[in-house]
Amino acid sequence: MKMTRRNGSGFVTVVDVLNMIFGIIIIVCAVFLLVDMREYARMFFVVFAAGTAMNINMAIKYYNRNDMARMIALAVFALILIALAVFSLVTVWF
């Protein structure tokens, strides 16, 4: 079967690579949090911020595909993660 390249596949590749990078960041930070939560408590902000970036990234991808239901769901979840990131920033750093 011959693989054909669709229009916009370069954008999809960039989105997938960015999601992989954000996922690795989340996993590494989660491991640090499992090791010692008190010492690495500032990592919560990084986890929530990377999760927000992943959701915004995927929302843009679904917006370009004209899949508005998924885009709205991801955007709402990104707003929740932003709130959690701000809350963790305020409680841990100040």
Core attributes:
3 helices; 94 residues; mainly alpha; 0% strand
Fold and architecture overview:
This protein has 94 residues and is mainly alpha-helical. It has one domain. Helices cover 80% and strands 0% of the residues. It has three helices and no strands. Helix 1 runs antiparallel to helix 2 and helix 2 packs antiparallel against helix 3. The radius of gyration is 16 Å and the shape is flat. The protein starts with 8 loop residues before the first helix and ends with a helix. The mean pLDDT is 89.
Give a nutshell description of this structure.
The chain is mainly α.
The number of strands is 0
Radius of gyration: 16 Å
Helix and strand content put the structural class at mainly alpha
Low-confidence stretches: none
**Oligomer category:** single chain
User: How large a portion of the residues is in β-strands, by DSSP E?
Assistant: under 5%
Series of secondary-structure elements, N-terminal to C-terminal = HHH
Looking at the structure, what is the overall shape?
flat
Query: What's the story with the biggest beta sheet?
Result: none
Helix fraction? over 70%
